[in-house]
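Submission sheet (multi-component)
Chains listed below:
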Amino acid sequence: GAVVSQHPSRVICKSGTSVKIECRSLDFQATTMFWYRQFPKQSLMLMATSNEGSKATYEQGVEKDKFLINHASLTLSTLTVTSAHPEDSSFYICSATRNYRLDTQYFGPGTRLTVL
Amino acid sequence: QQQVKQSPQSLIVQKGGISIINCAYENTAFDYFPWYQQFPGKGPALLIAIRPDVSEKKEGRFTISFNKSAKQFSLHIMDSQPGDSATYFCAASGRGGSQGNLIFGKGTKLSVKP
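Outcome: structure written.
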């Protein structure tokens, strides 16, 4: 159990367009979902935390108007990168937790975003 | 300060050898210490985790050793195999709220030579 999926697995888009990434918990209801960003050969950087039905909490330095997060249900969260630019190219990974503590997180397979 | 320091940055081990990765933390409120394994182009997978009420946890070839007084914990991979070649991240988190978020180390790239 505790499977998290992401779609798409990779996306290439032109500069200025918006891209939506979906994160789903397949076999459990996720109390909280997280969005991370990972640059090559670097660690995971937390971007935001979201709970179903409420506004996401963004980490310092993350532009909430650029990275829109919607947590529509207990099994689905979406990240929309608006007006994407080449510097937004990265590996985006979501995770989900099913307990009241935020620690045991199950990660999705990641989405490789390339902005031309 | 909420930091987790991980070493070494990279590690080369012969097949059958023991791989050891170390992490140190500063925040005494941390009470959950997981290790994640990540293959290139994939998301991290939870490998093993420990809470501070025990000093060691073993799952198959993977063992976490935890030293609460030194604020250090380590991952030992026994009988390392080429398939273990991946990047390993330690992490830590505390109780509730924003302190519940995982704080990751910078990762260790493990290469197991046949």
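Remark: Chain B has a mean pLDDT of 92.
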